[in-house]
Amino acid sequence: MTPPAVxxxxxxxxxxxxxxxxxxxxxxxxxxxxLAMDAxxxxxxxxxxxxxxxDASGCSGTALASETLSADFxxxxxxxxxxxxxLAPTAAPVQATLDLxxxxxxxxxxxxxxxxxxxxxxxxxxxxxxxxxxGPVCSLDAGQQPxxxxxxxxTLDQGELVLLSPAGGGYLADSRYTKxxxxxxxxxxxxxxxxxxxxxxxxxxxxxxxxxxxYTGWLYDAGKADFKGAQFDTSIGKTPFTFRLGAxxxxxxxEQGLPGMRIGGKRTLIIPASMAYGRAGSGNGIxxxxxxxxxxxxxxxx
Length: 302
Fold this sequence. Notes:
Layout: E1 19-22, E2 29-37, E3 44-53, E4 65-69, E5 73-86, E6 94-105, E7 110-113, E8 117-122, E9 125-132, E10 135-140, E11 148-157, E12 160-167, E13 170-177, E14 193-198, E15 210-220, E16 228-234, E17 241-244, H1 252-257, E18 266-271, E19 292-301
Parallel strand pairs: 5-13
Antiparallel strand pairs: 1-2, 2-3, 3-4, 3-5, 4-7, 5-6, 6-11, 8-9, 9-10, 11-12, 12-13, 14-18, 15-16, 15-17, 15-19, 18-19
């Protein structure tokens, strides 16, 4: 009698990403990403994000407050591919093996908790306040965020987790995480991030094309929930701004942050000083070594 065949043991392509990962310290704010294999057996990961707020720059010591989301994100494996990728800000493109995934983001709300957190409600709008030793910092509750879905990619680079988004025929790093919290960059300002808030449906923005956008820019403030400090410029209510992508007419944060958008889309860019105006700053509104936050709406592509 022939014994029954033993099914082969299969390992998910995403298993190597499971664990707790730490983002770079952004002033006194640090994100933690916990990835776990889907309990249902699917080739997918569940992503839990937590943002911790510390009393001093450098993110040392116990957090004063934590921000959690009401729902986890899911990353479902689609394929493994060799693709052109920029794995870090200002890095040159390389050929990298990427695990391509679809990120599903359910509708969610944010909650802050901890011994330094208080809340107030003004005209029906909740304010979250954190009592730092140098004074309280308050921000509005953004309310429920809409559900969304987007293509993405994962890879490991020198032991670090890299999350990427498609851009211009390749992939661009949105964020990097390390397994060792003590080795994360401390006090170096924010990592470069691109966050789509509205998915466009029109023509794709790519290098060499002429883009027309509306934008608003803020100084980066790690103490704010949305990182928006003092506003230094906006085109809202004025003539939209037109420029050629890839021609060196805008800062690197825009050159790397806008490819992949489509007309009608809106994107938030968090840009470290090295990809903005660096040590020189710009005019009276942007001091030296300032990180920036932009909200950009793509109006036209030619």
